[in-house]
Amino acid sequence: MSAADLAALSAAGRARAAAHEQARATHAAERAARATPRRPDDELKKLAAQGAALLSPADGREASADEVAAWASETFGDLLAVACSMADLVLPHVVAQHAPWVDVLFLETGYHFPETLGTRDAAAGSMPITVVDVTASQSVAEQDAQYGPRLHERDPGLCCALRKVAPLHAALGGYEAWVTGVRRDEAPTRTGTPLVTWDEKNRLVKINPLAAWSFDDLLAYAAKHAVLINPLLDDGYPSIGCAPCTRRVAPGEDPRSGRWAGLDKTECGLHA
């Protein structure tokens, strides 16, 4: 490829990036102008119950992930957020089909794998979503100064509470509903995950469009739609958290067995 060809490709890439950022900025301005107010809790609880009845009727037929995402977008509009660990971009892709430039909340704990941060950056630059880094009130250094280094080794529950649970709780305060990628096949603690429920802890509607999916379903969707996935998924990490607390999983093991391995801990507390 000639220097001229390379220059043309580079110029085209910059133009695409500029158009992408302009589209995001336009959406942000329009959203700010609308200034949609948050509805009271009792109204949101009714919407959660209506959504559960509509999407998971008594006859046992559950709505598809696409149908759930469409309902979420129509019902909550600007006040809908997606939580994403950047293990893959399937959930944001599903939701963004109906809610372009939806806020995608990423818990930037300060302990992530480089591959996870790279997936976040690639998503922000290529998908019609708005990535929002959610950070703890203390930096890692400040936390170390108060609690001592490697808190995650000595008290992983407290570390998760400080760097994940509390920051997300604060971030969700401005929304009416949040969408998660929790699946029933991930762990015994998640087998009863509903499509829609009221999240009493965070005081908003919680929506789980992929609840009925398997890991293979997720990978098949990613392949079909050319959706970004974290390269660690192909390197023995079917469940990806903070680097110090995540190990590879052997074939046949519980997909979440690599999280907090050797500890009496299976959840970080976000979905407890």
Automatic annotation (TrEMBL):
Sorted alphabetically, the keyword list is:
Cytoplasm, Iron, Iron-sulfur, Metal-binding, Oxidoreductase
Which top-rank group of organisms is this from? Bacteria
Where is region (Disordered) located?
Answer: 18-41
The record's comment on cofactor binding reads: Binds 1 [4Fe-4S] cluster per subunit.
Q: Which gene encodes it?
A: cysH
The entry's localization annotation reads: Cytoplasm
Give the residue spans that cross the bilayer: none
Q: Where is the signal peptide?
A: none
Query: Which lineage do the record's taxonomy fields give for this organism?
Result: Bacteria, Bacillati, Actinomycetota, Actinomycetes, Micrococcales
User: Enzyme group, top EC level?
Assistant: oxidoreductase
Tell me the residue numbers annotated for binding [4Fe-4S] cluster.
Answer: C159, C160, C242, C245
Q: Which residues does the UniProt record annotate as the domain Phosphoadenosine phosphosulphate reductase?
A: 82-247
Q: Which GO terms describe its molecular function?
A: phosphoadenylyl-sulfate reductase (thioredoxin) activity
Q: Which Gene3D superfamilies match?
A: HUPs (3.40.50.620)
Obligatory cofactor(s): [4Fe-4S] cluster
Q: Could you name the active-site residues?
A: C268
Q: What is its main location?
A: cytoplasm
EC code(s) of this entry: 1.8.4.10
Family recorded in the similarity comment: Belongs to the PAPS reductase family. CysH subfamily.
Reaction catalysed by this chain? [thioredoxin]-disulfide + sulfite + AMP + 2 H(+) = adenosine 5'-phosphosulfate + [thioredoxin]-dithiol
| Species of provenance | Flavimobilis rhizosphaerae
Q: Name the NCBIfam families on file.
A: cysH, PRK02090.1
Which pathway is it part of?
A: Sulfur metabolism; hydrogen sulfide biosynthesis; sulfite from sulfate
Mind telling me what this protein is named? Adenosine 5'-phosphosulfate reductase
According to its UniProt entry, the function of this protein is described as: Catalyzes the formation of sulfite from adenosine 5'-phosphosulfate (APS) using thioredoxin as an electron donor.
Checking CDD domains in the record gives:
PAPS_reductase
